[in-house]
Amino acid sequence: MAHIILVRHGETEANRLGIYQGKITDHFLNLTGNRQAEAVAKTLKDFQIEKIYSSTSMRAIETAENINDYHEKSIFATGKLLEIDHGLFDGKTLEQVKAKYPKILETWWNHPEKVKFPKGETLKGAHRRVTQFINDVINDMTRKIRSGNDSGSNYLNADEYFGNPASQFQKISAHLKYRRNFNQGNGKRPFNYRRQ
């Protein structure tokens, strides 16, 4: 059975100080963030991890590298996993944003789906970008399962791989289902990674 484990990066000074960080502003993990990274790495040390993906932000790469201390895999860093582009909010404190963009901030808190950050992106756009990447990863996993089989057994193998009951066989032909496990944690240090 395959699982996709989503891990949030550890705390940075920007997080602690309430500074918006997205695609532009990048900070390393602080002491708390490094401790969080070590904790999540220990939690995942006995998992059989095949691949590690990260955004290109240093906070995410540090997190991935810390997890990788137990797995020795290549880390694939991609901009497709970056946080939402906060545009002109990026690098600013909450107080600065409140002073300059009070209406946008209020909408962001109450109706985030309606906000496009000035010179940034929408929540829907960020969601589409990340979801497409995750779907590509799932499709890649599915292709590896399918190799060398007839179409009927492909779907049976995929069902078994993704933990679906046999009763779901007919429904899987168009969209292979997958299971997601969610964990939160975080990371540290220099690294080797390959951009996609």
In short, what is this structure?
By secondary structure, the chain is mainly alpha-helical. Helix content is 42%, strand content 8%.
What features would you describe in this structure?
The protein has helices at residues 13-17, 31-44, 58-68, 94-100, 102-110, 123-146, 151-162; strands at 4-6, 52-54, 75-77, 180-182, 193-195. The protein is mainly α and 196 residues long. The strands form 2 sheets. It has a 3-stranded parallel sheet with strand order 2-3-5, covered by helices on one side. Helix 2 runs parallel beside helix 3 (58-68). Mean pLDDT is 78; it is low at 146-196.
Name its key features.
196 residues; mainly alpha; 42% helix; disordered C terminus
Q: State the distance separating the first and last CA atoms.
A: 26 Å
- Spatial ordering of strands, largest sheet: 2-3-5
User: Could you describe the largest sheet, including whether it forms a barrel?
Assistant: 3 strands, parallel
What form results from the Cα inertia axes? globular
Counting DSSP H or I runs of 4 or more residues, the number of helices is 7
Strand content: 5-15%
Q: Rounded to an integer, what's the Rg over CA atoms?
A: 19 Å
Q: What is the CATH architecture term of the domain at 4-126 and 182-195?
A: 3-Layer(aba) Sandwich
Q: Going by CATH, what is the homologous superfamily of the domain at 4-126 and 182-195?
A: Phosphoglycerate mutase-like
Task: Tally the beta strands.
Answer: 5
CATH topology of the domain at 4-126 and 182-195: Rossmann fold
Query: What value does the average pLDDT take?
Result: 78
**What oligomeric state is this?**
single chain
CATH class of the domain at 4-126 and 182-195: Alpha Beta
Can you write the helix and strand succession as a string? EHHEHEHHHHEE
Organism: Candidatus Azambacteria bacterium GW2011_GWF2_46_32
Binding site for substrate: 8-15, 59
GO molecular function: fructose-2,6-bisphosphate 2-phosphatase activity
Pfam families: His_Phos_1
